[in-house]
Design the sequence.
């Protein structure tokens, strides 16, 4: 996906009705020794980092339970859409654990430190509507009879992104992701570097031409 230039947006969904991702298999984990657990979680964290580093926008379609590592997977995505009835939570403390695949870092960046601490300390599960109110998900939608309301809303969101200039979207994602980690002056410099890379693109010229000619732009990602 990272190197396929035809890919504009990636949507993560589950094929299991009622479950986005229920997290690690604790029965499997119970059979591991301490070293194996450490290796497993390190690999899991690396996977989430790779998902977060995808250059195109990513959307998690949460139509059911997203617990523990399942919510960490959703947090590694850029955008999240949930069914109102979906259940989410970093429940690790209820099992003698703490989030180990990015949850302690991505949740505070998403909802703020106070709320993140409350959710992680208590291991509380919240529904899609509560998640939307605290900014954990971008949209909460009523579940439908097929059980894929979040996926359908995620597809609609993806279709809003598709017509936009692909390289500009990628640079926008990069500028946001890098800039949020530094002071604002450094962030401005990062934005400037991303903008400079976009200036010579054919899509920028197409955007200007389409505006002058009063027609929809035809972006090619170059």
Sequence:
């Amino acid at each position: 996906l990272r190197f396929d230039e035809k890919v504009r947006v990636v949507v993560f969904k589950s094929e299991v009705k009622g479950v986005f991702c229920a997290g690690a298999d604790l029965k499997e984990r119970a059979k591991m020794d301490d070293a194996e657990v450490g290796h497993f979680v390190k690999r899991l964290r690396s996977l989430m980092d790779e998902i977060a580093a995808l250059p195109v926008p990513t959307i998690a379609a949460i139509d059911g339970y997203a617990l523990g590592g399942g919510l960490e997977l959703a947090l590694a995505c850029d955008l999240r859409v949930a069914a109102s009835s979906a259940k989410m939570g970093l429940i690790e403390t209820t099992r003698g654990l703490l989030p180990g695949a990015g949850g302690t870092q991505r949740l505070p960046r998403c909802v703020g430190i106070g709320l993140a601490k409350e959710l992680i300390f208590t291991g509380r599960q919240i529904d899609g509507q509560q998640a939307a109110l605290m900014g954990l998900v971008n949209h909460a939608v009523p579940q439908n009879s097929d059980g894929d309301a979040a996926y359908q809303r995620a597809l609609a969101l993806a279709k809003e992104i598709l017509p936009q200039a692909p390289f500009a979207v990628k640079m926008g994602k990069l500028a946001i992701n890098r800039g949020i980690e530094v002071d604002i002056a450094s962030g401005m410099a990062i934005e400037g570097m991303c903008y400079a890379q976009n200036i010579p693109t054919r899509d920028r010229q197409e955007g200007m031409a389409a505006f002058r000619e009063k027609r929809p732009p035809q972006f090619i990602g170059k």
